[in-house]
Specification:
Helix 1 (3-26) runs antiparallel to helix 2. The protein is 80% helix and 0% strand. The chain is mainly α.
């Protein structure tokens, strides 16, 4: 996977995680809302952060 493509996927995952956390934090007043926040939102957010750091470390430097 190219570096730019990895960045795009990292941004998508982070935004999806933040959106799920925002909806579950303010919109759901049920105990399952916390589970959605903690399990799904944090997992997507963490995966996006890890993918971002991996793509930064794997980035190719331009020759010349």
């Amino acid at each position: 996977m190219s570096s730019a493509r990895s960045f795009r996927w990292a941004v998508r995952l982070v935004f999806a995680g933040l959106l799920i956390e925002l909806v579950s934090f303010f919109g759901l007043k049920h105990p399952w809302g916390f589970m959605l926040f903690a399990v799904v939102g944090c997992t997507l957010l963490g995966a996006g952060i890890v993918l971002y750091f991996a793509s930064v470390l794997r980035r190719e430097t331009p020759s010349g």
